[in-house]
Specification:
The chain is mainly α. The chain folds into two domains: 122 residues, no CATH class; 71 residues, Arc Repressor Mutant, subunit A, CATH 1.10.10. The chain is built from eleven helices and no strands. It starts with a helix and ends in a 7-residue tail after the last helix.
């Protein structure tokens, strides 16, 4: 079984909290996705590193509760990341030293810091195109980001947000129409790109 497939197997996820080898496999297969999730939303590399570590600390404590009925392992992981980011924004995160519990994570040395800065800068270069996203109502913005930026299919994004799939599709449709209307006059090509990103197909 390929490493990524094995890492995203529900059985592997459920034992990741008590089996260091399973956690290592899951971590290595998913950490780039989690870093990407945060670099699209946070502009400080140290915060990205802390948020990523906090996400995997949460994985360690909650992996045994994972059920495939709650969505794919990737969608479940993004749900955890979203809660961690919300807590961060509220200023309610506990001591950052918790990240030392995470086995196998990448330590943030100078080279890692440079890579994170590059990723954040690359995301920032596209912020002009995505500025309109910030003006969307929260529900529409959240599902658009999960689909267009994080690569979840609409049903997975809806599961992350705790809403029905049909509700998610409606919100996504509204978001796409609002962005097309807002960006068309400024940059039709940019509007088309944003629209294409949020394809409503139910398969990746």
């Amino acid at each position: 079984m390929p490493v990524v497939t094995a890492a995203l197997d529900p059985g592997t996820v459920r034992i990741a909290g008590r089996d260091p080898d399973a956690f290592e496999v899951f971590y290595r297969a998913t950490v780039d996705d989690v870093i990407g999730f945060f670099t699209r939303r946070v502009f400080d590399p140290h915060s990205v590193a802390d948020l990523t570590a906090d996400t995997y600390v949460a994985v360690l404590s909650s992996a045994h509760t994972y059920s495939a009925s709650r969505g794919s392992p990737r969608a479940w992981l993004f749900g955890i990341a979203r809660h961690v980011l919300s807590a961060h924004r509220r200023g309610d995160l506990a001591d950052r030293e918790r990240h030392r519990r995470v086995e196998g994570r990448r330590l943030l040395d100078s080279e890692d810091l440079d890579v994170l800065v590059e990723r954040i800068d690359a995301q920032r270069s596209s912020r002009r195109l995505y500025a309109a996203v910030a003006a969307l109502p929260d529900g529409e913005r959240s599902i658009f980001e999960l689909v267009a930026l994080d690569g979840l299919v609409p049903a997975e994004a809806a599961a992350v947000l705790g809403i029905r799939a049909a509700t998610g599709r409606v919100r996504l449709h509204r978001a796409r129409r609002a962005l097309q209307a807002k960006l068309a006059d400024l940059d039709p090509a940019a509007a088309d790109r944003l629209s294409a990103l949020a394809d409503t197909r139910e398969v990746p």
